[in-house]
């Protein structure tokens, strides 16, 4: 479940393609995003010991330095947090976005 969704089948299979997962439209569709209910499910499933809800909030609000200090870069993008969230929050989308910004900021610092 770590891969990126593709819109159609016109995408080539390359050396880096380790697998293709085909799921139905029902399985692929996301529920309507709700507020975080602080259930902690995303935290309990994270294999890296991160707080995905916090990382999403920090990325969403633009607190990239804090996100970096909360180890956003160690996220392996497994998608487990987004998968289990009962509020259908796009945790991984925001974490990926935050990681890209943090990466860019580190490039600027160097
Ligand atoms: S996508 Fe990242 S933050 Fe979410 S569960 Fe996986 S490693 Fe943790
Ligand atoms: S799983 Fe979703 S609702 Fe629960 S704490 Fe994480 S972000 Fe909030």
Describe this structure in words.
The chain is an all-alpha fold and about 110 residues long. The protein has a domain at about 40-110. The chain has helices spanning about 25-30, 40-45, 50-60, 65-70, 80-85, 90-110. Helix 3 (about 50-60) packs across helix 6 (about 90-110). It is globular. The site of one iron/sulfur cluster has 14 residues, from helix 2.
Please state roughly what percent of the residues sit in beta strands, choosing from under 5%, 5-15%, 15-25%, 25-35%, 35-45% or over 45%: under 5%
| Ligand identities | iron/sulfur cluster
Helix content: 40-55%
Shape: globular
User: What's the rounded overall pLDDT mean?
Assistant: 91
SSE sequence, one letter per element: HHHHHH
Largest sheet: none
For the record, give the distance between the C-alpha atoms at the N and C termini, rounded to a whole number.
Answer: 33 Å
Q: Could you tell me the radius of gyration in angstroms?
A: 15 Å
| Oligomer state of the chains in this structure | single chain
Structural class: mainly alpha
- Poorly predicted sequence stretches spanning 5 or more consecutive residues: none
Overall number of strands = 0
> How many helical stretches?
6
């Amino acid at each position: 479940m770590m891969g990126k969704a593709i819109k159609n089948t016109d995408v080539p299979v390359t050396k880096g393609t380790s697998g293709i997962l085909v799921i139905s439209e029902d399985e692929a569709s996301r529920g309507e995003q709700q507020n975080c209910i602080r259930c902690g499910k995303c935290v309990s499933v994270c294999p890296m010991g991160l707080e995905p809800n916090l990382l999403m909030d920090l990325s969403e609000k633009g607190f990239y330095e804090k996100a970096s200090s909360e180890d956003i870069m160690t996220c392996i993008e497994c998608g487990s947090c987004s998968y289990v969230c009962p509020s259908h929050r796009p945790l991984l989308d925001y974490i990926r976005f935050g990681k890209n910004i943090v990466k860019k900021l580190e490039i600027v610092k160097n």
